[in-house]
Specification:
2 copies of one chain form a homodimer.
Chain A: E1 3-5, E2 14-16, H1 19-28, E3 36-40, E4 46-53, E5 60-65, H2 69-72, E6 80-84, H3 90-102, E7 107-112, H4 123-136, E8 144-150, H5 151-162, E9 170-174, E10 183-184, H6 185-188, E11 195-199, H7 207-215, E12 219-222, H8 230-245
Parallel strand pairs in A: 1-3, 6-7, 6-11, 7-8, 9-11, 9-12, 10-12
Antiparallel strand pairs in A: 2-5, 3-4, 4-5
Helix pairs in contact in A: 3-4, 3-8
Chain lengths: 247, 247
């Protein structure tokens, strides 16, 4: 099955695929007027549509039926938000985004930390990779990828959500200081619970940042005694969340 | 901490690092005679040694003490063996090997399947990546990476082990035929149990291969309704095994 993306699709209406999706449908897959295709809005909705104008730059789709339930059933009841410091090598972040989306990550934040070796990373390329991975894995939710902000700014923005009385969501920081008590991720995760995990840079979080996260009610978790690369730790958190929730 | 690899190290003796490890210790890290370093044999043993000859091509080490217990404790009581069909793009397999070793894979077999788009893959480069990932993640077990064989040959070789009376180890095949009954991996995995997982090529296993695996007592497992790339499915199995066993 081939899944297409259209951010302006609505039930029962006519929508147009963007240039890249149009080219893929008409040029690459050689689809014609009258052919049916699956289209998602990246918001969790899946539509069945029929091509009304097979224009390789501006393909028009008539929505013929609402979402197929078997795919809609994949929409997770809970989501995992990964907040990670970009690695020095941007290819490792691109790899992380592809794999995390395949495994159902809900949201990705990029952090600048005290020990970061990279304080800037363009999100447009990461967003294209996320879109491709969403389609490839037949998911209908396109995770948001937030531009780099400092951990201080990010925590300040999160505080609102955490202190708003909802104690249900879990907030973890995966730091590497073995002398500070940490709960193994396998015992810290709770099924059907929104979870946010902070993953530090190659040089780990600074003691100042760890204390700041604790003050923001983030609980320390451990991914085991082995030294995982930043992107491996981030993907491991997504895989574990997927495993616990059968995403 | 820096971990070095030496396949000829023995307790209380003198060993020499190979050219690459010698260069790394003496040229890159500028270590001198008398400096101490951690060395593993890749067989699960870790030694503390002292440099006696700081030769950048042939560094000699005197073993001063046996394995440190805190690292030795990481040796898993059970292991996961991934048998996977190489992807068309070899870079995806190199990525898989690095991440799987970081997450504690025990053994990797490469398979040629009916639908394989790649029937050959050199293992020497994969072995270098595995060695580097073992050292980076501070593990002391270097997983074996077996050259490509057909699934038929591989299953015939496995049969011996499976039919030798030991029913304890788990053997799974992760195929994508949704109409055939499959157990979710999350319920199929059992803690402290050696596990082998078969991962097919981009085009999935053929019906013939699935029946052949069933005949070899491999049980069908599902990784969920989403379509995972071959290398993502393989790493997910390793991550799930790690999660269940706290590797």
């Amino acid at each position: 099955m081939q899944l297409f993306y259209c951010n302006n699709i609505t039930d029962g209406g006519i929508c147009t695929l963007d240039a890249e999706e149009s080219r893929h449908a008409v040029r690459v897959l050689r689809m014609h007027e009258g052919d049916t295709l699956h289209v998602t809005d990246g918001l969790g909705n899946l539509f069945l549509g029929r091509i009304v104008v097979a224009d390789p730059r501006d393909c028009s789709i008539e929505v013929t039926s609402p979402a197929k339930t078997d795919l809609m059933a994949q929409q997770p009841a809970c989501k995992i938000h990964i907040a990670v410091a970009p690695t020095k090598n941007p290819a490792r972040m691109e790899w992380l985004v592809e794999k995390a989306v395949e495994l159902g990550v809900g949201e990705i934040s990029l952090l600048q930390c005290d020990h970061s070796e990279r304080s800037f990373l363009k999100t447009d390329r990461l967003e294209r990779i996320a879109l491709s991975a969403m389609k490839q894995s037949l998911r209908t939710l396109l995770p948001a990828i937030h531009p780099v902000v400092t951990l201080d700014e990010w925590l300040a923005a999160q505080q609102q959500g955490i202190s708003s009385g909802s104690l249900k969501p879990l907030h973890f920081i995966a730091h590497c200081e073995a002398d500070k008590p940490r709960t193994p991720l396998s015992t810290a995760l709770v099924a059907n619970t929104d979870t946010t995990v902070l993953i530090g840079p190659e040089g780990d979080f600074s003691p100042r940042e760890i204390d700041m996260a604790f003050a923001a009610r983030f609980k320390p978790v451990s991914f085991g005694e082995n030294r995982l690369r930043t992107e491996t730790a981030a993907l491991y958190a997504v895989a574990a969340f997927n495993f616990v929730n059968n995403l």
